[in-house]
Design brief:
Layout: H1 2-36, H2 42-66, E1 68-71, E2 97-101, E3 112-117, E4 121-123, E5 129-131, E6 139-148, E7 152-156, E8 159-162, E9 165-166, E10 190-191, E11 196-200, E12 218-219, E13 223-232, E14 238-239
Antiparallel strand pairs: 1-2, 2-13, 3-6, 3-13, 4-5, 6-11, 7-8, 7-10, 8-9, 11-12, 13-14
């Protein structure tokens, strides 16, 4: 037992020496690695600054063209937007907020558009568009595309017909709520000229849209952007590009 203990005692100092040597070597190796690290240079600083500016530029472009935030005021698009909207006195912080894009390819049925409404386009007896003398809303509005250039639309018996077929509209607020508001009275059915669109709100009883002389048809140049998604309120997050499916 004693010899064994002595042996152990003799081995411990040697191990300790080896460990100390090993630690010394490792320390030396670490010091050598540290000394091999290149110093921070002006070139590195310039690269960081360039990367920062590029990131800021990309983010700005995204939120300027691809994801432009829009605050929705009004109730013409209920229930798709502002389902809990009370009135004009409600704080903007409590209204729906969406992202729209100004970069898109084509406008189709069901798309929700943000429109800069300056001029009102009606149709003459030959079906040609002209700028009406009726005062325009002169504000941005948001509506849904119902008919595009080349399509024929008819509004009758509280229903909407496109190319002779009655639309199934699961997105509207109330059934049997489509009325003629005077823009094309006595002219239905009308054929939409190329480059123009017939738009309507989902809340048909409370929407001033293409049925009204103060709106009329929408020209391609009046389209500010296409709605992509609703991001506020967070619990009502919704993709708007397919909202026409109900």
């Amino acid at each position: 037992m004693d010899s064994n203990n002595e042996t152990v005692e003799e081995l411990n100092p040697e191990n300790t020496d080896n460990q100390e040597k090993g630690e010394t070597q490792e320390d030396g190796g670490t010091q050598e690695k540290k000394s091999d690290r290149p110093p921070f240079t002006m070139k590195d600083a310039i690269e960081i600054i360039e990367s920062t500016f590029i990131t800021i530029f990309v983010v700005c472009m995204i939120f300027t063209y691809l994801l432009h935030p829009v605050n929705i005021v009004g109730h013409s698009m209920v229930p798709t937007l502002n389902l809990n909207y009370v009135g004009e006195r409600e704080k903007k912080e409590d209204t729906d907020k969406i992202f729209m894009t100004t970069v898109y390819f084509g406008i189709n049925y069901g798309d929700i558009l943000v429109i800069e409404k300056d001029d009102n386009y009606l149709l003459d007896n030959d079906g040609k568009p002209y700028v009406a003398e009726t005062p325009s809303l002169n504000e941005c509005i948001i509506k849904r595309v119902i008919a595009t250039g080349g399509q024929t639309i008819d509004v009758r018996d509280h229903k909407v017909y496109v190319d002779g077929e009655m639309l199934n509209e699961p997105y509207i607020n109330e059934p049997d709520s489509t009325e003629d508001l005077g823009a094309f009275s006595g002219q239905y059915p009308i054929t939409i000229p190329e480059g123009y669109y017939f738009v309507m709100g989902d809340n048909r009883n409370h929407s001033t849209d293409s049925r009204a002389a103060s709106v009329g048809l929408i020209s391609k140049e009046q389209i500010y952007g296409k709605a992509l998604l609703k991001y506020y309120p967070l619990n009502e997050f919704d993709i708007l590009t397919d909202s026409w499916k109900g």
